[in-house]
Each structure stands twice: as C-alpha cells, then as structure tokens.
C-alpha cells in the first residue's frame, strides 16, 4: 500500500468540509423597521444612497414613491424597485444592501391567528411572541416547535436536539406549558431569525342538531364513533313545542363539504320507542323542522354547517 502524501491527506480532510460549505444554503435577509439600506440604481442618482426604513416599515423614495419594505427579503425589494423604475428607465439595474440592522424578525407559522414574519423588540419570551402573533387558534395541536440556526446560537434546553442537516437546533414543547406563561418552556427567549411553529390539531368530529330543539348546536365525538339520535335530542334539551318531529331530515356532509346522503326520519316514533333508535356519526346533521318545512329546511341546513360551532357535549 502506497503512503498517503501530506498534500493528499489535507485534500481528503478539507475538500469535504469545503464542499459542504459551498452547498449550505444562506437564509435570505429579511428587512425590518429601523434598518438602514443602501440602494444603488444605475442612472438614478436620486435614490442611490442610504435610506432608513421608517417605523411603519416603509421607504419613501424619489421616482418610486412609498414602498413597503419591512418583512420582505432584499431580493423582493430589488425586484419591486426594478419594476417601478421601469416606468422611467430602460432596463434599470438595482442593488440593495443591508447597511445597518436594527430589526428583530421572527417567523411564526402554523395554528396562530397571524402567521408570518413578526418584529419583536429584542429577545422575548416564547409565550409573549405567540401573543404578538394573535394567539393560538382553538384548532391548534399539542406541540410548539422552536428552530434556531446553529450560526445564531444554541437552544439551552434539555429537550433540544440538532436537525438532521446539522444546521439548526430544534426543540419541541407542550403547547399547554407554553401558553401557561410560567416555567422554562413558556419563557425560553426567542432571538432574531428564530422559527416558531404551532402544530395543527386533528379535525374535530361533530354531529350537528339544528331547528326546533331547545339548544341547537353540535356534539363532539372524541372517544366514540357514534351517538344515538335520542341522545342527541336529549343533549340538545329536547324538542320545542313548535317542532314537527314526524318528518325530520338527516343529512350527511363529508370532509370536503359535499352532501353525500339524506333521508327523512320520524323522531317522534324513535323517542316513543315504537321504532329502533339510529346511530349518528361524524358529519351527520339532524334538522327538526317547524310548520313551513320546505323553506325551513333550506335555510336551516346552511346554518347548521356554516355558523360557529356550539358544542353541546364531548363524548
């Protein structure tokens, strides 16, 4: 076996590291309020200088006018400036450079009211950042994930781990612990360029009851697959005096919002024990009509699936 020369040995060590560095993607720079940008535009000396993004996240430039800059990448801003200058110049060339960074962008996605790029005042507790994002949606799942690029620091929590590509630190936290506002999970400090992701929850399985019942609403199926029609009526507080229960309508709406079945049922005979009770499952809508059945059903079917859900019970 031939000995390995020092030069080859260095190549074996350095080249893989250099190759990985070349292939590592560089995250785009996001502009924020207070940032100072240097703009260089060929044949447009009026805007070729330094500009500060105002507190509203805007730039007011000659020829171009007011441009929304905060929350955008450098490339995106360059493209808009080229487009606007194209009204006055032939094939304009524009370059934008971040000269001073005074913003603190954080990305929030998933089951929050206002996902997107947020500007925080500085290192902030995780629960406070979620409030800046409008809070967590009722449909949220159980997990909040925080991701931080290794180049920006480490996540000093026992549960944190390195991403498969080795470029980021990741930690998964219980949503309940975070939204409580107390404890280390809720108060982990979020830094510039961190990514927060709130998991989406499972789709709720609901049986709806509408029309002439005391409490129209929905029954959520959590631990069971079906609920009996008589139990649905009981949970809804029973029938009203004006109910026409001999010819109720039962419709089924699938997960795509399409009606796939409908039938008429005699709720009066079911409740009296004269006919067998029936089981209702996810997507079923029981409509108990009043006197004007036809017009009543047309309106009430739409409201049964489009209005806010009032959960009568969780089964």
Structure in words:
This protein is α+β, with helices and mostly antiparallel strands and about 325 residues long. Helices cover about 20% and strands about 30% of the residues. The protein folds into three domains: about 1-100, wza like domain (wza like fold, 2-Layer Sandwich); about 105-200, Outer membrane lipoprotein wza domain like (Outer membrane lipoprotein wza fold like); about 205-315, Outer membrane lipoprotein wza fold like. A six-stranded mixed beta sheet has the order 7-6-13-9-11-10. A six-stranded mixed beta sheet has the order 18-17-20-14-15-21, with helices on both faces. A three-stranded antiparallel beta sheet has the order 2-1-5, covered by helices on one side. The radius of gyration is 30 Å and the shape is elongated.
SSE class: alpha+beta
Q: N-to-C SSE series?
A: HEEEEHEEEEHEEEHEEEEEHEEHEEHE
Which radius of gyration do the C-alpha atoms yield? 30 Å
How many E-type strands?
21
The first-level CATH class name of the largest domain: Alpha Beta
Strand content: 25-35%
What is the name of the CATH architecture of the largest domain?
Roll
Strand order of the largest sheet: 7-6-13-9-11-10
**Number of helical elements:** 7
CA(first)-CA(last) distance: 74 Å
* Biggest pleated sheet: 6 strands, mixed
Mean pLDDT: 81
**Which geometry do the CA atoms define?**
elongated
Instruction: State the CATH superfamily name of the largest domain.
Output: Outer membrane lipoprotein wza domain like
Q: How many structural units, i.e. domains?
A: 3
Uncertain stretches? 1-26, 294-308
Per the CATH scheme, the topology name of the largest domain is Outer membrane lipoprotein wza fold like
The percentage helix is 10-25%
């Amino acid at each position: 076996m031939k000995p390995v020369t020092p030069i080859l040995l260095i190549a074996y060590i350095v080249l893989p590291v250099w190759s990985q560095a070349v292939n590592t993607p560089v995250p785009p720079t996001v502009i924020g309020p207070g940032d100072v940008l240097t703009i260089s535009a060929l044949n447009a000396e009026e805007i070729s200088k330094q500009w500060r993004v105002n507190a509203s996240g805007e730039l007011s430039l000659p020829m171009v006018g007011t441009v929304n800059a905060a929350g955008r990448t450098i490339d995106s801003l360059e493209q808009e400036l080229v487009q606007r200058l194209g009204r006055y110049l032939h094939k304009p060339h524009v370059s934008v450079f971040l000269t001073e960074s005074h913003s603190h962008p954080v990305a929030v996605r998933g089951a929050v009211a206002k996902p997107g790029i947020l500007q925080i005042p500085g290192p902030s507790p995780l629960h406070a950042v979620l409030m800046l994002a409008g809070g967590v949606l009722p449909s949220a799942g159980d997990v909040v994930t925080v991701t931080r690029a290794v180049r920006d620091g480490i996540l000093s929590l026992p549960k944190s781990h390195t991403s498969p590509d080795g470029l980021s630190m990741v930690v998964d936290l219980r949503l309940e612990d975070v939204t409580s506002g107390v404890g280390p999970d809720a108060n982990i400090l979020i830094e510039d360029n961190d990514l927060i992701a709130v998991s989406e929850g499972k789709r709720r399985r609901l049986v709806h009851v509408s029309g002439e019942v005391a409490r129209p609403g929905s029954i959520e199926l959590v631990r069971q697959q079906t609920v009996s029609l008589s139990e649905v009526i009981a949970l809804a507080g029973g029938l009203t005096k004006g109910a026409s229960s001999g010819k109720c309508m039962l419709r089924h709406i699938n997960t795509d919002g399409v009606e796939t079945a409908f039938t008429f049922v005699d709720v009066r005979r079911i409740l009296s024990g004269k006919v067998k009770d029936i089981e209702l499952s996810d997507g079923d809508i029981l409509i108990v009509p009043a006197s004007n059945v036809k017009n009543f059903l047309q309106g009430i079917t739409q409201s049964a699936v489009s209005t806010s859900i009032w959960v009568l019970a969780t089964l």
